[in-house]
Amino acid sequence: MKTLRLLHRWTGGFVGLLLALFGLSGALLVHKDAFLRATMPHAADAQRQDTATLAAAATRIFASDERPRSIVLATERLGLHKLSYKGERAAYADQDGNIVQSWTSNWSRPEVWLFDFHHHLFNGDAGEVVGGVIGLVGLGFVVTGLILWWPTRRMFRFRLWPQAARRAAIVHHHRDLGAWIAPLLILSLTTGAAMNLKWFSQALRAPFTSPAVMEAASAPPKIVGGKLAKNLDWAKVIGAAQARFPDAEVRTIALPAKAGGLIQIRLRREPEWLPNGRSVVWFDPADGRPVASRDALALPLGARIANADYPLHAAKVGGLPYRLVMTVSGLGLALLGSLAVVTFWGNPSGLPRRRRPARQR
């Protein structure tokens, strides 16, 4: 138990601050749509999903000389489309296809750089892997913390803040806070690590579906598309996607990433939790003809379970009550991590400090 306590303390002293920043940034990102509705024009507009409106917006946006690579369409909670170009360039557009705001650096928009930190540590794929590993370290903290808390469980007190600014009170609060918030932390840390680390995600789903089967089911069709038509009939394309999945919401429109690629339209069917869905219809860019489709509800069980990671992690299901739950999880992690760093560096040894003897007069 002594070795476990030392491992928990020393690792927390070095990693705690990063976990705290992950928790705080995650708590803020849960409310990103509310922030945009309060600060961006047209962000509070009602969502429109009729074919004519979607086609008119796509036609206007893709007719630009510097057309985007993809469009993430407006949702019920956010009335703006998000346009992605090469590099960090992006923009918000209203549902008629008019650009509301554009930027060329992630640092230009607070919600964008906050997401870049939370998901990539400002370092692309490498940062994503590091973030996943930190998530696994966080899971280790939760497990070891519960083991260390168990012998002291009779002293449990539910407090949101330490009773006093003394080290003993902070340690007691850290231990009890970690105990009652542990289920939320396990959920957020596990889903976060699974999204960032492919091998971890596959290991979790292997009892349900083999990784090879999941890979094959999620692979894009091996069909070569033609050259992108200059005046593509987007009403025809979007209408065909809606006809393939009549119960679905059209979520993203992506142009071919390279020569021979296909136009991809993602849709979210009613039972899907993932905000942008995993149901897909592919089209030949030369004539807008549908060439393949994939139904997310027909994916193997392991893949369907994996598709729940992001909506659970980012509180994209469950409405406001669940967003508040995940806010508590993020703020709790922020408090646990920051107080762990303070108490560790205030006394790395963890030994009681000797009181100086009073001077004799």
Automatic annotation (TrEMBL):
The chain crosses the membrane at residues 12-31, 129-150, 177-197, 324-346. Keywords: Membrane, Transmembrane, Transmembrane helix. It comes from the Bacteria. PANTHER family: BLL7967 PROTEIN, IRON-REGULATED INNER MEMBRANE PROTEIN-RELATED. This is Peptidase. The lineage of its organism: Bacteria, Pseudomonadati, Pseudomonadota, Alphaproteobacteria, Caulobacterales.
